[in-house]
Amino acid sequence: MSLWISVIIISGLVSLVGKNSRPLGLWGIGIALFLILFTGVIFFLGWAIVPFP
């Protein structure tokens, strides 16, 4: 997991604590999950085109 995704997830979890910042925390966690999914899909598509030796 990259540093940026880790920072986003940690910040999102911290934001979930406060009532006013909860939607922002959920938004951040959603972006982190999207980035993880996107990275995984691109990795497997690239692997299907050019497999590792």
Description:
The protein is mostly helical. Helices cover 77% and strands 0% of the residues. It contains two helices and no strands. It has helices at 3-15, 22-49. Helix 1 (3-15) packs antiparallel against helix 2. It is elongated.
Task: Outline the secondary-structure elements.
Elements: H1 3-15, H2 22-49
Tally of contiguous helical segments: 2
Question: Quick one: how many beta strands?
Answer: 0
Q: Which class of secondary structure composition applies to the elements?
A: mainly alpha
The helix content is over 70%
The N- and C-terminal alpha carbons lie at a distance of: 23 Å
Rg result: 15 Å
Mean pLDDT comes to: 89
Oligomer: single chain
Keywords:
53 residues, mainly alpha, 2 helices, 77% helix, 0% strand
